[in-house]
Amino acid sequence: MKKNTLAWLKKVSTTAIVTATVSLTASFHTVAADLGIVRLATTTSTYNSGLLDYLLPEFEQKHGATIQVIAVGTGKALRMGRDGDVDVVMTHAPKAEAKFVNEGYGVDPKGIMYNDFVLVGPRNDPAGVNGKKSIAQALATVTKNGGLFISRGDDSGTHKKELNLWRQASVKLPFDGYREVGQGMGKVLQISSELQGYTLTDRGTWLAYKSKVDLKIVSQGDTGLFNPYQVIQVNPKRHEGLNTKGAETLSKWLVSDKTQDKINNFRLHGEQLFVANAKD
Known about the structure:
Helix content: 40-55%
Number of helices: 11
Largest sheet: 8 strands, mixed
């Protein structure tokens, strides 16, 4: 009788444990499915630098979300937002972003962080750019002394900045040594290294690639090289089916104190890549 009772108790106990486990697992999956898939179009610089791999797993685990990262140039990222192909964008071209918001395609823009652009070139600096006081002088020297310049040529935030800097330097494009390659920043650094040309890059991608290429910084520190990043939600009034809750949650999380601290603590080769500057 006792053996039968013990067997029955063991069976009931095991059933209870299995039921509880299934219940907890179901509850976990319910939470994990809350935000679902959030589509983020962002720049190649945030991807190439490793920043997103560093930041996003914590958000996904905490909020039960899957972030689909589409790393493209800023121009394409904003076009994807206009077309409703993504839920949120994170880019670095202030004028293009302002137009995106003013035309009603984006809402609630938030500044996240900044870094800067640098001009890099061959270690022997054949165009004699190193030491020029401004980026405008540096770029003008590239053209004057017959240097080769590799441009992204892809309507990215970096490409937009580069074109603006050429205008400031009063250089008419294209010149003999100007080459547009239509590639992301990492690839452009590799091409510049192979061809021993100059190029403009964000500091984050430079730090991620500098040990892989035969280049050095030849101009930096000019105030005109400031490079701010924003996160902007795609306007749900423009498109149906957007993951607005996911986009809003991600946007707020990126500017939270904890995430801002993580951005400041992100380093490569001992150097800080981005400076957090959220105001919200």
